[in-house]
Here is the input.
Amino acid sequence: AQSVTQLDSQVPVFEEAPVELRCNYSSSVSVYLFWYVQYPNQGLQLLLKYLSGSTLVKGINGFEAEFNKSQTSFHLRKPSVHISDTAEYFCAVTKAAGNKLTFGGGTRVLVKP
Amino acid sequence: NAGVMQNPRHLVRRRGQEARLRCSPMKGHSHVYWYRQLPEEGLKFMVYLQKENIIDESGMPKERFSAEFPKEGPSILRIQQVVRGDSAAYFCASSNIGTEQPQHFGDGTRLSIL
Here is the structure.
């Protein structure tokens, strides 16, 4: 079975500052990794995904994430946040040969002016 | 709108009633997933369906919950004899064929039990 830990439940950050959201996973098999964003009262929107290849993955809205197999991490970063980035962010994994997503508990990002 | 469509967006039921949640996948998608998000928690997998088949229901509660994805029409998540603990946001996702295909989510149905 897989598990996902998002180490920070809330991250306050000032506008135009960088942000990093941490995600660690546990799995005995190969996995695919995803980051989703959830705005209030909405569904989840895919930010980026790692399937294979380059460990640095670029996504939408200026986000990127780095897959580190030895540390079983997939941290999400953005060099300069906007007020509109205020949302909840979820890291998720699925077995490379499976389908269901296993989610972390989420990280709430609050961008302050 | 070619996205995943869920309805209703909000549903209020009294204890003991039935709740029916509907999900129409993105055009061309043949895989449907249901997830539940309890207050202050992440999303938990419930069930994975393809047309007329339940592929994985390992996350479904053993009683009162059922799901279907008929040949024609939307996928339905049905909760019988609802209880207060069923209050949650229920999200549907769909994907195309292939395990590397990402899941696309609907806006969810927020179920409140009085």
Q: What stands out?
A: Chain A has a mean pLDDT of 93.
